[in-house]
């Protein structure tokens, strides 16, 4: 019995030692698992940061590529890839795949700008909503001390064709033109077109002509306006009815604006307008550039003195006026103080032009305002910090001497 008890005690002790050893191994394994989990978490976090950095880099590259393509009137439209990855396809599917590759795989001129599907009803509704917003507040006020001068905004004529639009007197703008797409996107989103905000800072009503059932001929040629001869006749036959074509007289700049700026041919960017402009300048009369004349004003003299003596001193509140002459060939630049009056501007212009101050009027095209009160300050007239003014001959006065 004593021997059996001793054997049992040895077995218990051996099992106890084995359990303690296994406990130590288990704790070591748990520590190892915790270490691996921490390392894996740090590695996954680092991998996530690397992926985010790579995504931001790729997004920036995509934006730069889209901006580069947009500079040349192009747009990336992509191509489907599910038809290329099919491996188990029959002979008919291979033929369809080859046909698809012939049709869509290679770039053709005009594929970069796909004519959008225009929802004419939604477009007309958006134009009506924009016009109603302006018509509700159609009478605006001009900040002059004599009181508010109401004026009515002239509606913007817009002709809506099946293949494009025409604003004002043209030119025709097809739907696939990027500028036209931006204009339509602004209207459909409920905003006044950004390209008209310089002329209509507070918006303007539209006068829409719904011609969606007509296709505007983009390559329209006007009939020959001269006289014609018939073979075998000795005299010139003149047309019995004279037709006037108001669009036949086109300025050089208007003609150049209808041409594309650049064309890509075989990977090379070709300038289109530059050589044609040089040719027109050599063979046709070109409009004379506007002559800018800086008028010496007290404010300009004081500003020069301030910059020379104390350039760190605060600049006073000034106004830069650009005044065009009656014929549009001269533009007078005047730097005035906000407390100067319209009479001061009139006297300076008369002195610079060597004419009588009573022979011309100063007016603003938008909003249409004639400044007749010489005691009116530029601040009160709304001509600060800058404004564009025009001159015209006073009614009943002799025109100024050249």
From TrEMBL:
GO terms for molecular function: ubiquitin binding. Residues 153-217 form the SEP domain. Residues 314-391 form the UBX domain. SUPFAM superfamilies: NSFL1 (p97 ATPase) cofactor p47, SEP domain, Ubiquitin-like. Keywords: Coiled coil, Cytoplasm, Cytoskeleton. The keyword Nucleotide-binding does not apply. Residues 78-97 are annotated as: Disordered. One of its GO terms (cellular component) is cytoskeleton. Residues 81-94 have a biased composition (Acidic residues). Interacts with GNA12, GNA13, RND1, RND2 and RND3. This is UBX domain-containing protein 11.
């Amino acid at each position: 019995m004593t021997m059996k008890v001793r054997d049992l005690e040895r077995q218990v002790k051996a099992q106890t030692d084995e359990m303690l050893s296994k406990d130590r191994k288990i704790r070591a394994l748990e520590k190892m698992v915790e270490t691996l989990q921490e390392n894996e978490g740090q590695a996954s976090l680092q991998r996530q940061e690397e992926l985010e950095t790579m995504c931001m880099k790729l997004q920036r590259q995509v934006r730069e590529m889209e901006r580069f393509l947009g500079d040349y009137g192009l747009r990336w439209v992509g191509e489907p890839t599910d038809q290329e990855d099919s491996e188990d396809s029959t002979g008919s599917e291979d033929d369809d795949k080859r046909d698809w590759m012939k049709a869509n795989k290679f770039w053709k001129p005009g594929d970069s700008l796909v004519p959008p599907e225009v929802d004419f009803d939604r477009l007309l509704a958006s134009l009506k909503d924009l016009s109603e917003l302006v018509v509700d507040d159609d009478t605006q006020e001009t900040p002059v001390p004599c009181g508010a001068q109401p004026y009515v905004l002239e509606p913007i004529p817009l002709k809506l064709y099946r293949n494009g639009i025409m604003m004002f007197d043209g030119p025709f703008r097809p739907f696939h033109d990027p500028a036209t797409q931006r204009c339509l996107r602004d209207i459909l989103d409920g905003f006044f077109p950004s390209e008209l905000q310089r002329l209509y800072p507070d918006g303007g009503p539209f006068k829409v002509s719904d011609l969606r059932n007509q296709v505007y001929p983009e390559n329209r040629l006007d009939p020959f306006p001269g006289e014609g001869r018939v073979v075998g006749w000795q005299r010139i036959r003149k047309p019995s009815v004279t037709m006037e074509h108001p669009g036949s007289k086109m300025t050089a700049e208007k003609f150049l604006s209808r041409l594309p700026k650049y064309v890509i041919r075989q990977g090379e960017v070709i300038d289109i307008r530059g050589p044609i402009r040089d040719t027109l300048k050599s063979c046709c009369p070109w409009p004379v550039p506007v002559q800018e004349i800086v008028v010496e004003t007290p404010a300009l003299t004081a500003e020069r003195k301030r910059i020379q003596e104390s350039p760190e001193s605060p600049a006073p509140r000034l106004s830069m006026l650009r005044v065009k002459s009656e014929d549009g060939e001269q533009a007078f630049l005047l730097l005035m103080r906000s407390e100067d009056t319209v009479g001061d501007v009139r006297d300076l212009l008369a002195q610079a032009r060597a004419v009588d101050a009573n022979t011309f009027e100063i007016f603003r095209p938008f909003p249409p305002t004639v400044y007749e009160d010489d005691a009116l300050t530029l601040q009160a007239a709304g001509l600060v910090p800058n404004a564009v003014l025009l001159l015209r001959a006073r009614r009943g006065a002799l025109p100024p001497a050249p």
